[in-house]
Specification:
By secondary structure, this protein is mainly β. Helices cover 0% and strands 32% of the residues. It has strands at 9-11, 18-20, 30-31, 34-35, 37-39. The chain is globular, with a radius of gyration of 9 Å. 5% of the residues are buried.
Length: 40
């Protein structure tokens, strides 16, 4: 799943890092070798 809009929040299920999107550039967010999960 790729980043779709600003303000989305993603979490790493391995280490717990969280990211909030400030600029959409396409692609997917990866942490600890796995795709990050969109938090709603």
């Amino acid at each position: 799943m790729g980043v779709k809009k600003e303000g989305e929040k993603y979490r790493c299920n391995v280490c717990g890092n969280e990211v909030v999107v400030t600029k959409v550039g396409g692609g997917t967010l990866v942490c600890c070798g796995e795709d990050m999960e969109l938090v709603e």
